[in-house]
Amino acid sequence: xxxxxMSSIERAELCQTARRVLVDRAPMGRVRALLDDPLxxxxxxxxxxxRLGWTGIHVPDASGGSDGLFADVxxxxxxxxxxxxxxxxxxxxxxxxxxxxxxxxxxxxATVVPRIVDGTLMATVAFAGPGGxxxxxxxxxxxxxxxxxxxxxxxxxxxxxxxxxxxxxVVFAAxxxxxxxxxxxxxxxxxTVVPTATLDQTRRPATVRFDRVAVRSEGxxxxxxxxxxxxxxxxxxxxxxxxxxxxxxxxxxVERTADYVKQRFQFGRSIGSFQAIKHRLADAxxxxxxxxxxxxxAAAAIDxxxxxxxxxxxxxxxxxxxxxxxxAAVTICGDSLQSHGGIGFTWEHDTHLYLKRAMLNQAMFxxxxxxxxxxxxxxxxxxxxxxxxxxx
Amino acid sequence: xxxxxMSSIERAELCQTARRVLVDRAPMGRVRALLDDPLxxxxxxxxxxxRLGWTGIHVPDASGGSDGLFADVxxxxxxxxxxxxxxxxxxxxxxxxxxxxxxxxxxxxATVVPRIVDGTLMATVAFAGPGGxxxxxxxxxxxxxxxxxxxxxxxxxxxxxxxxxxxxxVVFAAxxxxxxxxxxxxxxxxxTVVPTATLDQTRRPATVRFDRVAVRSEGxxxxxxxxxxxxxxxxxxxxxxxxxxxxxxxxxxVERTADYVKQRFQFGRSIGSFQAIKHRLADAxxxxxxxxxxxxxAAAAIDxxxxxxxxxxxxxxxxxxxxxxxxAAVTICGDSLQSHGGIGFTWEHDTHLYLKRAMLNQAMFxxxxxxxxxxxxxxxxxxxxxxxxxxx
Amino acid sequence: xxxxxxxIGPDGGEFDELRNSVRRWCAATIPPDWRExxxxxxxxxxxxxxxxxxxxxxxxxxFIPHWPREWGGVEMSLPEQxxxxxxxxxGDAPRLGITQVSVFNAAPAIIHAGSPAQKQRYLxxxxxxxxxxxxxxEPNAGSDxxxxxxxxxxxxxxxxxxxxxxxxxxxxxxxxxxxxxxTDLDAPKNKGISFFVMDMRSPGVEVRPIKNLVGxxxxxxxxxxxxxxxxxxxxxxxxxxxxxxxATLGSERAVALIGLAELLRRNGRDFLLTAAAAWTMxxxxxxxxxxxxxxxxxxxxGEVEILRLVLTRMVTNLLHHGGAGPEASVVKIYYSELLxxxxxxxxxxxxxxxxxxxxxxxSSGWETHDFARDFIHSYSWTIGGGTNEIMRNIVGEQVLGxxxxxxxxxxxx
Amino acid sequence: xxxxxxxIGPDGGEFDELRNSVRRWCAATIPPDWRExxxxxxxxxxxxxxxxxxxxxxxxxxFIPHWPREWGGVEMSLPEQxxxxxxxxxGDAPRLGITQVSVFNAAPAIIHAGSPAQKQRYLxxxxxxxxxxxxxxEPNAGSDxxxxxxxxxxxxxxxxxxxxxxxxxxxxxxxxxxxxxxTDLDAPKNKGISFFVMDMRSPGVEVRPIKNLVGxxxxxxxxxxxxxxxxxxxxxxxxxxxxxxxATLGSERAVALIGLAELLRRNGRDFLLTAAAAWTMxxxxxxxxxxxxxxxxxxxxGEVEILRLVLTRMVTNLLHHGGAGPEASVVKIYYSELLxxxxxxxxxxxxxxxxxxxxxxxSSGWETHDFARDFIHSYSWTIGGGTNEIMRNIVGEQVLGxxxxxxxxxxxx
Lengths: 392, 392, 413, 413
Description:
In chain A, 65% of the residues are buried. Chain A is globular and about 80 Å long. Helices cover 49% and strands 15% of the residues of chain A. By secondary structure, chain A is of the alpha+beta class. Chain A has 3 domains: 8-122, Orthogonal Bundle (Butyryl-Coa Dehydrogenase, subunit A, domain 1); 124-222, Butyryl-CoA Dehydrogenase, subunit A, domain 2; 227-380, Butyryl-CoA Dehydrogenase, subunit A, domain 3 (Up-down Bundle), CATH 1.20.140.10. Chain C folds into 3 domains: 3-96, Acyl-CoA dehydrogenase/oxidase, N-terminal domain (Butyryl-Coa Dehydrogenase, subunit A, domain 1); 131-239, Butyryl-CoA Dehydrogenase, subunit A, domain 2 (Beta Barrel), CATH 2.40.110; 257-398, Butyryl-CoA Dehydrogenase, subunit A, domain 3, CATH 1.20.140.10. Chain C contains 14 helices and 8 strands. Chain C has helices at 3-6, 16-29, 34-38, 43-60, 78-90, 100-113, 116-127, 241-246, 251-276, 291-321, 327-350, 371-377, 379-383, 388-399, and strands spanning 132-135, 151-155, 158-166, 176-182, 193-199, 205-210, 219-230, 234-235. The longest helix of chain C is centred in the last third of the chain and has 31 residues, at 291-321. The termini of chain C are far apart. Mean pLDDT of chain C is 88; it is low at 1-9. The chains are: A alpha+beta, C alpha+beta. Chains in contact: A-B, A-C, A-D, B-C, B-D, C-D.
C-alpha cells in the first residue's frame, strides 16, 4: 500500500475480506448474543480486527499505521454496517485516532495512536451537550484555566461511543475563549461514565461526567484557536463513518428484502411480482446506487481537503452524504419492514436490528436538517449574507 | 332559505344545479374558446349566474342578497373549479363583496353590494405587493393623508383578479399608521390596469397602478385600526375560495383519470389494473376525501367565527384547508398527467387546464408554506414566545 | 370542544351532559401516574392492570356501551359513543387491550350470525369480561386468505382441527378463540372456510409467545393438534365463515377509530408540542422557534385535525346510510401513515436524545411518548388490520371500480 | 472543476486542454443573448437557429465527436465526450434538438445492424446534418410494443406500409424516418417487428403537428397510407427490428445524460439560486434567509451533486465493462424525478409571481428558467423515454430479479 492509497482492486479485496471475516466471526447469532451484554462487544473479535490491521489502515506510518487513505478504510466501515457489528473500531481507531492525528499537539498522537493501532488501548471522543447534537455552539463540557497552562474540565458529554470500553477520552470543552481539546485517561479522578442504552443495542454510548478534572498542558490537544476546527474535522469523520455504516445497512437490507419477496407467495404469486412491492424496491435500488456515490465522494473529500478547518467542498460532500444516506437507510429499513409484513415485526427477524442502527446513525454526528443547512451555508453564505457562491 | 343557512339537502341540490348549468352553458369547448379572449369570461354566462342568484347567496338581505351562509355558496365555488369556469363571480361576488360587507364603513356595502348582487357592477380587491403575497407586511399600494379626512393612494397592486372587468376596486394600502381599505372606481384618474397573463388562462389577474389617486373620506372602508383585520378576513375568504376551487379540480381529475385508466389497455390489461396506477389513484382518493372535510371545515369556520380579526380557530381551519387542498390538487393533477402518459402531455387534452389552474390556486391568497406557519403561529404563539397553546 | 368541529360532528349542546359526566369520571377514576406505574411492567402486571381498568369501565357502563340492555349494555347511540371515546382519549385513559377481540370482533359476529343459544352462551361471558383471541392469520395466509391451511374435519357431532395460527394477541389469557378453518378443501379461495368458537383450554391447543420488534410479547403463535370442537360451536353456516368474519368489520370498529384519532391528537400531536418545547436545535436554539420546524408542525397539526374531521364524517355517514364500506380503508391508510409520519418527524426532531431506550409503557399501545419507539411500532398500523397495500387495492377496485389484477394460471381462486 | 468530483470522474489534469479549448470555443461562439432571441421564436425561427447552431458544432468537430474519422467524426473517447458535454452545458449552449434522432438513435442502429451499403448511404448524410425522425410509438403502443399495429407487407422488392405513429418529433423537417412496423402478424409480442428507414417524402406519408401542453408544437402524428419502402431499406433481419431498436440505447445516450446532469446543475440549480436571491417570503424577508428554504436548498443542492456523481460512475463503468444496462434506468428515474421536484420547489418558492406567463424559449428544452412552466414540462421526462413505471419494472426485474407480472389469459405474448 502506498501513501497514495490502495488501488481500486485492493480496496475491493479488502471489502471482500472484511465481509468474509465478519460473516465468519461476527454472524447474526453473535450480534444478538451481545445485545444485552454489558461490555457490548467481543474482545476476541476486536483482537482479530487489530491483527488484520484494520485499526491502522489510514493512520500515518509515523503513528504505527499503514499510511493509507480514509477512502481505503471506508469499505471496512460499510461492511461493519452490513453485518451490524458491535465493535469499538469506529469510535476508537477511526474517530478518536483521527482527532489525535489531526491535533496540533503532535506528541499525543505519537504516544497514544500507535497503541490504538496495536490494540493495547482504546480511545473515544466526548463533546456533545444535553441534546446530543454536534455543533460548536452546544459542546457539553466546559473548561476553565488551570495550573501551569493546563485546564480544568467540568460538565457532561453525552453520546460518547464505547466510553465504558475506552481507556482514553479525547474531550472537547467550551470556554470563554473558545473550544479546546484535551486527552484524558478514563480512570482519571473526577470522571464518571454512565452507560445510556439506546434503541440500537449494537452500540454503547454513554454520558461522561467531568467533575473538576485537571488536565496538564501536555494533555492539551488543541487550544482555543484550533479547537473548533478540530471539532469540525472530528464531526466530519464521524458523520462520514455513520453514512458508510448506513450505506452498508441499506445495501444488505435491499438484498435481503429482494430475497424474501421472491420466495413469499400470496395470491398465487411471489409478492415481488406485485408493483407495490417491486416499485418500492426499485426506489430502494435507486437510493442505494445514489448513496454509493455519495459516500465514496465524502470519503474522497476527507482525504483530499485540508482537514481543519472544514473546507467548503468537504462540507458539501460530507454533509450531503450524511443527510442523504442516513435518511435513505431509515427509509429503506422501514419499507423493508412493510414489505416483510408481520414477520418483519418480530424480534426474531433481523429487520429491527438494521432499522434501529440506521436510526442511531441518522441521529448521531449531526442530524439531517443540520447537515442540509451546512450545505446551504457553504453554498449561500450565512443567513443575512446570501451572496450566491456558485460551484465550479 | 333561512338566516341559519340551507339544509344539507338544499346545498346538495344547489351543487347539482350548478354542475348542470356549467356543463350546459360553460362546457370545455367554451372554456377553451375563452383562453385567448381579451375579456377572458363570458358575459352571457355571468348574466345567467346572476339570474340564478349565485352572486347573492351569502350576502345579507340588507344588501340585496339571500342572507345565506358562506358554506351555502361553497359548493358553487367547487363546481366552478370542477368546470374550470372562467368567471369573475369569485373575485366580485365572493371576495370583494365580503370585504365590503365586513367593512366598518357600512355605507359602501349598502350602495355597492346590491349592484354586485344584481349584476350591474363588478368589483375586485387589490392589495398584493410585487411578489403577489398576502401578508400585511407586503401590501403593495401606499397611502398618505389627503384632504378632508381622505387619503391619497400610490403604488402598485399585483394579482388583482379580473381587474380589467371590474368597475370598482376595493384597495388596501399601507401607510405609517397602518393599513387602510378604500373603495375606488376603476376609471378614476390615476388608475392604470395592466393585464398580466398567467400559465392558467382561465383567470385574468392584472397589475393595478395607482398614481396619486385621491379617495374622499366616504370612500374609506376601514381606517388604520381596522384595516389589517379586514385584510386578513379578505385573504381568508380568498384562500377558502381557492381551496374550494382546487377541491373541485381534484375531485373531477380523479374521476377522469379513473375513467381513462379503465379503458386504456397495455400488456393485455387495462392500465388501471396495475398497482402502480391503482395505488396512485387510491392515494388520490385519500387526498380528495380528506380535502373534502378540510374545505367544509374552512367554510364552516368562515361562518362561525367573528370575521375580523382572524380568530385562532378560523386561522387553523382556513390555513389548513388552503395549504392541504391546494397542494393536493397540484399533486393529483401531476399524477394524472403521469397516468395519462403522452396523451396527457398534449394541448388538446384537458389535463393541463386543471393543472395550471390548480397551480395558480396554490400560489394565490397565501402560499402553502405561509399558511402552515400561520397554523403554527396560532398553535404555538409567535416565534420567541412558544408557549404551547393546546386545542380544545 | 372546538366550534368548527361541532358543525360537522355530534352537536356540542346535545351531548354536553354526557361529555361532562365522562370527563368528570375520567378525572376521578384514571390514576394520573398510571404511565409511570406501567412503564416496564411485566406481562402479569399488565394483565392485572388491564383487568382492573376493565372493571372500572364496566362499573360506569363504558365497557360495552353500545350493546342492547338485555345483554348488559346501555344502548349508547353512535354519536354518544363518539363523545365517550373522545373523552376517554382526552382523559389519557389506558387502552383496554384484553377485551378488544371479544367485544369488537367476536361479539359482532355472534350477534350477526349466531343462533339464540349461542348468543345466550357467549354474550353474557363477554359482557362479564371474558378474554378472547382471534385465530385468523396463518404463516401462509397473511394478505391472502386463500392460503388458509388450518383444517377442520367433521366427525359426527364435532370437528377435529389441525393447523397453526399466528399473531394471536392475548392467546395466553384467552378462554375462547374465534377461529377460521378450512372445511372444504376443494372450494375456491374464500369459500369452504368455517367460523368456530374454540375453547382455548381444549387438549391439543399450544400457545407460544412471539416477541415483537420493540421487545414486547404482544402476539402469540397458536398450534392446534387434533383439537376437538363441538359442532354446536360453529357460527353461521358450514363453509360460510368468510362472510361471518366480515361482520366483525362493522360500525363498532369505525367508532373505535374515533378513539384512535383523539389519541393521536392528544398523545401524539399535543404531547409532541409539549415535549418539543424543551428540545433544542443543533445550534442550541429552541426547536419551536425554527421556521422549518414550525412549518412542518403547522402542516402536521392540520393533518391531525383533518383525521378527526374525516372520521367524524365517516361516522355521520354510518348514521345515515349504515356500513362503513371502502371509506374505512381510506381512513385506515390515512390514519396509519399520518401516525407514522408524525412519529418519524418527532423522533428525528428529538435528535440523538430521542434514541435513548426506556422501558415500554404497558397499556399504552403506540403512544408511549418515546417517539423513536413509537415510530418503529407504527408499522403495526400500516401492516396490521390489512396491509396498506391491500387497502389501496380495495380503494382502487371498490371506490373507483378499477380492474383487479389478472390471476396467475393455476392459482387457487 | 471541483476537486471532489475529479477523484471519481475523468481526471482533471489529463483533459484540461480539451476542457479549456471547449470553454474558449463556447465563449467565442455562443451568442450571449440567444435565450432572449429565441424567447417566443416561431417554428421557422427555431429551425433556422438550430441549423445555424449545428453548423457551428460541426465546424468545431463537436457534432458527431464520437464517430470514427472515416465517417466524419473525431473519435473522442468516452471521458473526452463527458468533458465536451459538461463544458457545453456550462457554457449555456443551446440544445441541439433537430439531429437528436439522426445521431443518437438512427446512426447507432445503422452502425450496429446496417449493411456496408446502408452505412455508406446513410451515415454521410447524417454527418452532413440531415434531419431524421423516429416512428416507434403508436396510440395503442406506448409502454407496450406488443400493441404495435403499423403493418409492412412484403410485395416483391418492396414493402407496403399502413398505419399511424405518434410523438414523432421533427417529422415536418425530417428527410428520413426510422420506423418500426409489424411484418409478421402471428408472431408473439416483440417478434415479428421490422426496422426500416422510410423516406419522409414518400407518397402516402402525412404529418400533423401536435401542440403540447405548454403550447409548443413539439411533436407530430405521422399517418402512412400505402407507403412504399424499398426492401433495401430494411435494417437488420426481417422480423428482427426489436433488437435493432434496442441498439439505439447505447453508450451515446449515457453520455448525453452527462450533458443533462450539467444542465440541471447550471440551469436548474444555479439559476434557481441566482433568481431566488431576488425573491421574498410572504413577510417580505429574503427567501434565501429562511431556514426552511435553506434546508430544502441544501438538500436539493446535494442531490444534484449526487446526480453528477452517479452519472460519472455510470460512464466509468461503461468504460470498463461496456453496456449501460439497467443502471441507466436507475439514473433515468433519479434524473427525471429530481428535475421534477426541483422545478416544483422553485415554482412554489417563487409564489404568485412564478405563475406569470412569458413566451417559451426555443432550443432550451425544459430549462427556460420559468420554473412553473419547466415544472409542467418536466413530465416529458417522467413519461418519455419509457415511463418511470416501466423503468421501475426494469429495475425490479433486471437488477433484483423479481418475477414479472402474470399475463392475463389471451393476451398477446
